[in-house]
Design brief:
The structure holds 2 protein chains of 2 kinds.
Chain A lengths: L7 H4 L3 E7 L3 H14 L3 E7 L5 H7 L3 E6 L5 H14 L4 E4 L11 H9 L5 E5 L9 H18 L11 E4 H6 L9 H11 L4 E5 L6 H5 L6 H16 L1
Chain B lengths: L4 H22 L7 H19 L3 H9 L5 H39 L17
Helix pairs in contact in B: 1-2
The chains are: A alpha/beta, B mainly alpha.
Chain lengths: 237, 125
């Protein structure tokens, strides 16, 4: 852990929020403002080669570091870029969250609390898997994803696909995966296991809106199958 | 015991693939898991086994119901196709990773300079 642990991190000064975004111009400004209202964080938005005005929107916002992938490389690649950037900027704690507004920034404090107290290196936000709070098809897909992650990577977690996570500086430095797409989230579980990182799971709220459920790049059924195939194929080649 | 050319070739290829897999696994290189290593051992070890003991294919042929020397042709074809797919996908994966890394470096080159980094460790990524 860094020298500033217990001093600046308590003030939230070196908590960096990484928001990977692809074609999220419609909601990105609201998402960023919500995060800013939730606490004093450094916000890094990584536009993953969007075709809309996502990057210009991010750049126009106050106190936001906007980075852009010139090519669309996937959510995992954008998240990793944001984490590397946060590390270079001296982040003590890094939180990753989706850019479509489905994560509630008021959960950030609960998410980073176990890292602040030094209990663990990684905190995984877990979405409620209750019918009514999460679409039924997502509950099934999530359970399948958890089982596959457990079989392939050796740790059973409640939500292997959640993008709302917090990492200590140490964890963010040591976790190294080349996964570019949605399998990134599962590969992080593998890294936790391989590197013997301490982790815990914290319940988070999730807001499924027409926007987040309707966008084509979401982790839907087809993308879920693709992710599954990539995870299995990654074991073979 | 007469040794055929195909047996030598298959044993050589299998040995190289097994050696590479074992080296990557025991050096704990990124992405090398026990399951991946086990798959390598089963696939390439199986190839080597068939090359060393060709009669084992007869048992397999009986099991799946194929008879005759066509086994050798199928085995050779399968080996070549498998090798090609392995190499092709590895190359594609490597290119994809390089593209992502280049894209990341370009994006990070615009990262604003901010001073207060007081760490002994680098980000290492």
């Amino acid at each position: 852990m860094g020298k500033r642990e217990g001093i600046d991190t308590v003030m939230g000064r070196f908590v960096h929020i990484v928001i990977p975004a692809y074609n999220e111009a419609a909601v990105l400004a609201d998402v960023v403002r919500e995060v800013q209202a939730a606490g004093e964080y450094t916000i890094i938005v990584v536009d993953d080669g969007s075709r809309d005005a996502t990057f210009n929107t991010a750049r126009s916002l106050d106190n936001v570091i906007a980075l852009r992938h010139k090519l669309n490389r996937g959510k995992g690649a954008a998240t990793k870029t944001g984490i590397v950037a946060a590390n270079r900027l001296g982040a003590d704690i890094i939180v990753t969250m989706d850019g479509d507004g489905q994560h509630d920034p008021s959960d950030i404090e609960a998410l980073i609390a176990p890292i602040r107290t030094g209990e663990c290196d990684v905190v995984l936000g877990t979405r409620p898997k209750v019918k009514g709070e999460m679409p039924f098809i997502k509950i099934i897909a999530n359970k399948i994803g958890n089982i596959v992650t457990w079989l392939l990577y050796g740790i059973h977690v409640s939500d292997s696909q959640s993008g709302f996570r917090a990492y200590s500086h140490f964890a963010a430095t040591i976790i190294d995966t080349k996964a570019d797409k949605y399998e990134y989230d599962s590969k992080v579980i593998r890294e936790i296991n391989n590197n013997r990182l301490r982790f815990t799971e914290v319940p988070i709220k999730v807001r499924y809106t027409d926007y987040s459920m309707g966008k084509p790049q979401k982790q839907g059924f087809i993308n879920g199958i693709k992710t599954l195939v990539r995870m299995i194929w990654g074991m073979l080649v | 015991m007469k040794i055929h050319l195909y047996q030598i070739i298959i044993i050589c290829i299998s040995s190289v693939m097994l050696f590479q897999g074992a080296k990557e696994f025991f050096k704990r290189e990124t992405g090398q898991t026990f399951l991946k290593f086990a798959v390598r051992v089963v696939v390439w070890g199986g190839m080597g086994l068939v090359a060393v003991y060709p009669n084992s294919t007869m048992h397999f042929a009986k099991l799946i119901g194929i008879e005759g020397n066509i086994n050798a042709v199928i085995l050779t074809g399968f080996l070549l196709v498998f090798l090609l797919i392995f190499k092709l996908l590895s190359a594609i994966e490597k290119i994809e990773q390089n593209i992502s890394e280049l894209t990341r470096k370009e994006a990070l080159s615009h990262l604003p300079e901010q001073t207060p980094i007081d760490r002994n460790t680098d980000d290492g990524q």
